[in-house]
Amino acid sequence: MLLLNFQYVIPNHKNVKAAWERASLTITTAKTRWLVAAIFVLSAPTQSAPPHAGWPAYGATAGGTHFSRASQITPENVAQLEQVWEHRSGDVREAVRDPENFVMQSSLQVTPILVEDTLYYCSPFNNVFALDARTGEQRWRFEADVDIDSEQVFTNCRGVSSWQSGKTGYCEHRIVVGTLDARLIALDAGTGERCTDFGNNGEVDTSEGQAEHHPREFGITSPPAILGDKIITGSYVLDNLRTDAPGGVVHAYDARTGERAWAWNPVPPGMPQRREDGTWVTGTTNVWSILSVDEERNLVFLPTGNTQPDYYGGHRDGLDYYSSSVIALNGDTGEVVWHYQLVHHDVWDYDAPAQPTLVDLTIDGESVPAVIQVSKMGMTFALHRETGEPLWPVEERPVPQQGVPGETLAATQPFPTHIPYTLTPPFTADDAWGMMIWDESACRDKISAMRNEGAYTPPSLEGSVNFPSNAGGNNWGSPAIHPDSGVMVVYTNRVPGSTRLIPREQCDEVVQQQAGTPYCVETSMVTSPLGVPCSEPPWGTLDGIDIVAGKRIWSVPLGTTRNMAPFPFWFLKGLPGLAAPMMTASGLVFSGISNDHNLRAFSLATGEELWKGALPTAANALPMTYQLEEGGRQYVVIAAGGHWSGGSPPGDHLIAFALPESGSAQ
């Protein structure tokens, strides 16, 4: 196939504690020990100044702008970038294709955070690392002891978070990581040791109160949010297994003690969050992607997934009230302040996959606090951060009806009117494309044989065309937004998908069982016999959009088929996959993609590709950048670890690029 379907007393002085312990063995009098301690304290380095341009949270800011003020690397000198260091965790897993024991390859989707002069990141196995931000040298490693072999179908960790008390001392700065087996672990940032006053020996079990489930069904893959002294986390829930899957509870914990401050299970208003036996109501929508917080307004913003399972909802009876939505919670209580639903009664897996991006927009001369939410439909919703009201009109338009027996579809769906869509249905048999005439003809026949009524064609027994596919449109890579100009850059997947429901009596060999419903389901990309998408390239683009003006300013293909297809089929541009752009104040956009072995830099003004850096495998993670001192060296860091959706092999490469030191002032 051509294409695959896809306690240190003094921070930053690591030898003080060890030296003090050695000295203590030979010093016996209290007076002398006090004197030696004072010498250590006075001679130790003071706390480092904050970076000139840092990256303290997964998305650069607590509101996920993916934007940095770092400006040493510019459109004029970016072509000089070179690799300056690489860190290898050793945490790699190859795919196992045995039907009796199928596991996916590991995928390094992490974006490090920078605090002072240290980078922190997690591996797909949830092990945590601290690195020297200048050299990539490892300062410590923490082993999370996740049983990846027997319990986890896939392995993933998108990032860690940082909490600081404002004091100095052991565990006054904590690195927090969520695990695939649903634990939340707090570590001392200086040593990597557990903060034993947090929960039970440094960890809490977020699965507490869940109904009985297999461990692989419930865990944490995205970094928790930090709001004041609270650590807030959602969870992933394995899709399409059963209606009574674990509930998608969002938890807030005290950052010091690990005690639960509040929990919110997304049941409809007025419905109890727990069942009679005290366990959480099952099957509720979860929050698997990245949360945002607004400290000034004390709000937590959630992008919600689907109510279980994804492709049939005849049993839900209102349980999907908060499904596929943006939700604002009160940070103190977990109470809903407002919510806005992007897809009504979602039976397409069109959940809200991206981090809600918080940015202030200048509209009619006034600064407006906004939440920008991109979606799998390629639509962008701009909402007022305090009320959830759309900043520009959104129309409720009729959509196709007549689903399978037992299903009740939403009569309308919301369509934003101001910000242009990054792709537009319908995708019809007339749009079929192939490498050759017979290939194109096969695509046309495949599309013609399925139900296809444009956007929101419901799942059917004969199979339905879904454009976009359940991968999007836009996905968890989320947009980068310039906080001054309001220009947004987002990756768009442009490959059609298909959904076919299968009556229960025929479901023995089907993977996606949707137990508890009358149907199991098969989903796939719409591809030719060669494995090539049936849509015309580009299959993936970076799109630049002026949000306030409501216009697209450029769209460029991202990636080539060189690493996915044999020669001479290297010429196709614009790959399907997953990608996450990052933006700098100097006018650059950086992005990798899950099926191409390169990191690229583009002009923010025009979309022109300005530089390409080769990688050992694909990089679908969000890149990050930082400058430790004003006028100092700027680093761009990317995780290259492949992805299970395409042909890129697994890896464990965290790679930093920078300008040559001799050319740093150019």
UniProtKB/TrEMBL annotation:
Q: Which InterPro entries match?
A: PQQ_b-propeller_rpt (IPR018391), PQQ_mDH (IPR017511), PQQ_rpt_dom (IPR002372), Quinoprotein_ADH-like_sf (IPR011047)
Q: Which CDD domains match?
A: PQQ_mGDH
- A GO-annotated cellular component: membrane
The Pyrrolo-quinoline quinone repeat domain, residue ranges: 55-636
Needed cofactors, names only, are: pyrroloquinoline quinone
Q: Name one GO molecular function term.
A: quinoprotein glucose dehydrogenase activity
Superkingdom assignment: Bacteria
Q: Which Pfam families match?
A: PQQ
Question: Is rRNA-binding among the key words of this record?
Answer: no
Q: Which UniProt keywords apply?
A: Oxidoreductase
Q: Which family does it belong to?
A: Belongs to the bacterial PQQ dehydrogenase family.
Name by which UniProt lists this protein: Quinoprotein glucose dehydrogenase
Species the sequence originates in: Parahalioglobus pacificus
